[in-house]
Design brief:
Length: 297
């Protein structure tokens, strides 16, 4: 028979908040934000169709039904942990990282081999997501997002600045030269569905807001847009942090020195107190070494 089981992350958030009597303390234990714990508890309450907590100032108090539920699932989670310890294997230090897919593919993954060579005892687990920090349910040691933004109990470490400007393959310019911004009217402009106004903003900054390109192509991920530019399909709005290697090696060229659109810096978000852990501290130091701090341009 199929078991009617609630989401495991919701159970873990509920059990931690119930045991500690605080969403904040539960967030610190699980390595997530206060908002993520609240979201998971609401998910469990919706699944159970009953209220689990009564809020009293900064503390939360279990309802009688939730107290009985905790008495059952608490030992069950303990047994799962004990069984995992018996049958699992020691992988050494595990560093859990969450980053946007385009950043991971274009910047982080090509550099990870260097980090692993320097820290062979640290196992890196990388997941990609564009979810807001407060919506992430799984516990991550480091979350990479734009910023810096402020979150309760979380420190932001900017490590890489970014701007955006038109780029394309050298072969495309050989076929159809671009000598001034108006020449873009002879080309295909590549758009990313996640940032649909980049070209409009750049054309306005260049003083030609009404320009109509020969064609337009929209792709659902930024890294697909950049790949289309590399393949000579058209011109893309290139994020300088993610195309630096391509520009340096001549795979992409920037027809114009400017204007450059400002963009948010890449930041490493770490729960307060977690940054002193050796694997986390080592990765943060490595990010700062590999990146370009804000204001360095």
């Amino acid at each position: 028979m199929r078991r009617a089981l609630p989401p495991l992350n919701a159970l873990r958030a509920f059990e931690a908040a119930a045991r500690l009597g605080s969403f904040k303390a539960a967030a610190n234990e699980l390595g997530v934000t206060h908002g993520a714990v609240s979201q998971q508890v609401r998910l469990l309450e919706d699944w159970l169709r009953t209220k689990a907590f009564e809020r009293h100032n900064r503390r939360v108090v279990l309802t009688p039904a939730a107290r009985a539920y905790l008495a059952e699932i608490g030992p069950a989670l303990d047994r799962i942990a004990a069984a995992t310890a018996c049958y699992g294997h020691d992988e050494g230090a595990v560093l859990r990282i969450n980053a946007p897919a385009s950043f991971a593919l274009r910047w982080l993954v090509p550099r990870l081999a260097a980090f692993r060579t320097r820290h062979p005892g640290t196992q890196v687990r990388l997941e990609t997501s564009n979810q807001p920090l407060e919506a992430l349910a799984a516990p991550y040691d480091i979350v990479i997002r734009g910023g810096p933004d402020r979150f309760y109990g979380v420190a932001a470490r900017p490590f890489l600045s970014e701007e955006r400007l038109p780029v394309c393959s050298p072969g495309l310019l050989d076929r159809v030269p671009v000598r001034c911004p108006e020449d873009l009217g002879r080309h295909t402009l590549l758009h990313s569905a996640s940032l649909p106004r980049l070209w409009d903003d750049w054309l306005a900054a260049a003083g030609i807001p009404g320009l109509q390109p020969a064609a337009a192509l929209t792709l659902d991920h930024f890294y697909l847009t950049l790949q289309a530019a590399l393949d000579g399909i058209g011109l893309a709005m290139g994020p300088t942090a993610l195309i630096a290697d391509d520009l340096a090696q001549g795979r992409l060229v920037a027809p114009f020195p400017g204007p450059r659109l400002p963009a948010r810096a890449y930041c490493a978000y770490v729960r307060e107190g977690k940054a002193v852990d050796e694997p986390v501290a080592s990765f943060l130091a490595w990010l700062l070494e590999q990146g370009e701090p804000v204001g360095a341009r």
